[in-house]
Amino acid sequence: MKTYCGENCCKDCDRLPACGGCEQCQGHPFGGSCVAERNRNFPLLKRRLIDEINALGIEGLAVADLNLLTGSYVNLTYPLANGSSVRFLKDQDIYLGNQVEKADSDRCYGIVADEAFILICEYGCNGLDPEIVLYKRRPLPV
Q1: pLDDT exceeds cutoff 80 at 26
Q2: What is the distance, to the nearest Å, from the Cα of residue 69 to the centroid of all Cα atoms in its chain?
Q3: Stronger pLDDT, 18 or 34, i.e. the higher one
Q4: How many distinct structural domains can be found in the chain?
Q5: How many Å apart are CA 72 and CA 75, to the nearest integer?
Q6: Is residue 116 part of a domain?
Q7: Is residue 91 situated within a structural domain?
Q8: What confidence score (pLDDT) does residue 8 get?
Q9: Residue 142 domain flag
């Protein structure tokens, strides 16, 4: 199946029947927006994000790759200090992300990013008890 970004992500997507793939949805899966389709030089964006994340110096966090992920899959609800909770992502959009297991812990780092932000969180099994480690806006190209 042809994709706009060349990542071949549609082949492994369990939600392909709902979306139809890049050609059918014209780069707007699930009615949202895809980070790969929005960026003409997608491989460069991906490399820069990996470098930025690794340069943050978060202990135990080293990212080798980022995958295209549906917002609904990674859009956790984070508790805030005032007792309310918040979700940062759009369920229908496609982001870059990955999960990195923390050494000597039952928790993981979750990474979600696109051209506008980097979000790093920590959570337990199945996304339980998520905590925001870092939310960083990225400068948008002029």
Answers
A1: no
A2: 6
A3: 34
A4: 1
A5: 5
A6: yes
A7: yes
A8: 67
A9: no
